[in-house]
Design a protein that fits this description.
By secondary structure, the protein is α+β, with helices and mostly antiparallel strands. It is built from 3 helices and 4 strands, in the order βαββααβ. α1 packs antiparallel against α3. The protein is globular and about 40 Å long. The mean pLDDT is about 95.
Length: about 100
């Protein structure tokens, strides 16, 4: 069964470019190395560019675990973690009700 997750966090204004670069480096890794990740997108809030949200769709819990254990995730966390306003990322899992996704 697919896993649908949203991750939200806020960084210091001085860390915005560091986080944007880390995202730009990270997402191609996911595409190339995680076949069980159906969808991964990172968005930056227009009205407050210090806020980011990531959307994930994993094939199943096993794919979710592969993603979470990867060295690329550890590098990404090392890049954005020191920039946080709050202590951590808020991860929320969802169940799909309906979709127009192609």
């Amino acid at each position: 069964m697919p896993v649908y997750t949203i991750a939200r966090y806020q960084v210091q204004p001085s860390g915005v470019e560091t986080v944007r670069k880390a995202i730009a480096d990270f997402v191609p890794y996911v595409e190339a190395n995680e076949p069980g990740t159906r969808f991964y997108a990172a968005w930056q809030e227009k009205d407050d560019p210090t806020r980011f949200v990531h959307f994930f769709i994993f094939e199943d819990e096993a794919a979710h675990e592969v993603h979470g254990r990867s060295e690329a995730v550890k590098r990404f966390e090392a890049a954005y973690g020191p920039e946080f306003v709050n202590a951590s990322v808020e991860f929320v899992d969802y169940e799909l009700v309906a979709s127009q996704q192609k």
